[in-house]
């Protein structure tokens, strides 16, 4: 026959504490979360959160004050310096352009005055040369006229002398034909003088 002690079921040595009942577990969980809500909204956690916020604020302040702000200020100062330099260069270029414009206007006015003076001098020189040529031509013409008048006067005198001789010869021929005698030189001269005075 079998031993009755061996056929009996073994009793667990762990006891009730080894595997808690479901009800006990639910009650324990409810006790842990009995307060409800998020932990960061509980007053007992605010001290640590404020300390963390202060540390983060201090770190951000140091980063902004020591790192970001100097860099931004350097960038802004550099940009302002570049803008100021560009404005100064633009002012200098504008001043140089204005000065060059004034110099060009002065040179243009001087060139215009010089050209007008040259034109006036050329016109005056041309007028003087024309007047000189005209005076020379008039002098030549006057000399030719004087020579022509002298020649005409000589021809007139020669013609008058020839007329006197012809008249004397004609009178001699007429007297000799009418009287049959030759007239004397004194009579012919007197007759010629009378005819010349009557003419």
Automatic annotation (TrEMBL):
Q: Tell me what topology the record assigns in the membrane.
A: Single-pass membrane protein
The family database entries (Pfam families) matched by this protein are listed as: ATP-synt_B (PF00430)
Source organism's superkingdom? Bacteria
- InterPro entries recorded: ATP_synth_b/b'su_bac/chlpt, ATP_synthase_B_chain
Assembly behavior: F-type ATPases have 2 components, F(1) - the catalytic core - and F(0) - the membrane proton channel. F(1) has five subunits: alpha(3), beta(3), gamma(1), delta(1), epsilon(1). F(0) has three main subunits: a(1), b(2) and c(10-14). The alpha and beta chains form an alternating ring which encloses part of the gamma chain. F(1) is attached to F(0) by a central stalk formed by the gamma and epsilon chains, while a peripheral stalk is formed by the delta and b chains.
Return the similarity comment.
Belongs to the ATPase B chain family.
Could you tell me what this protein is called? Answer: ATP synthase subunit b
Q: Tell me what organism the protein belongs to.
A: Caulobacter sp. (strain K31)
Q: What is the lineage of its organism?
A: Bacteria, Pseudomonadati, Pseudomonadota, Alphaproteobacteria, Caulobacterales
